[in-house]
Amino acid sequence: MSRVFVISDHHFGHQKIIDFESRPFGSVEEMDEHMIEQWNSVVAKEDKVFHLGDFSFYNKEKTKAIVERLNGTKFLILGNHDRGRSKSWWLDAGFHEVSEYPILYQSFFILSHEPIYMNKHMPYVNIHGHIHSQKYEGQHYFNVSVEHWDYKPVSYEEIKSSLVASEEQ
Question: In what order do the strands lie in the sheet with 97-99?
């Protein structure tokens, strides 16, 4: 049975992100390889992965080579660093589907790159990236930036369990 995962903000090929986010890598090549290994350590070929943006700073050829090495069927919601390239560019790079906008998943989760404003009366949970190692307070937000998850995609089961646990506190 296939599982569903979510992750964001890999920034493949982005040397400066190592310093910006204090990532523990000596080079962009080391970072890229580690992130590919971490992805494939939890995602199987038949799984689905929603990537919530800022995937790669490489050209199409290098980006496609990375996408091909990653397990699972991959869906991309464009992040601020992805928007300079067309939807067809990302499809050609190997993503199964690409969305320019946030999507509602299972009628409860809003998947977006940037956190979306939510008042305390909204019943949704916003699964997002963009803010890297920062965190929004409250039960309405779930940050899946790679820095929080040891560079591994997070399963929906883990997200749901985490939300239930935080409600019980």
Answer: 97-99, 73-77, 48-51, 4-7, 154-155
CA–CA gap between residue 155 and residue 96 (Å, rounded): 19
Question: Mean pLDDT of successive 10-residue segments in the chain (169 residues)?
Answer: 95 95 96 98 98 97 98 97 95 98 92 88 89 75 94 94 68
CA–CA separation, 88 and 82 (whole Å): 12
Burial class (CB within 10 angstroms; exposed 0-12, middle 13-18, buried 19+) of 61: exposed
E strand segments, 9-140: 48-51, 73-77, 97-99, 103-105, 109-111, 125-128
- In terms of CATH architecture, what is 4-168? 4-Layer Sandwich (3.60)
Domain locations in the chain as residue ranges:
4-168
Q: What is the pTM of this model?
A: 0.93
What pLDDT sits at residue 166? 63
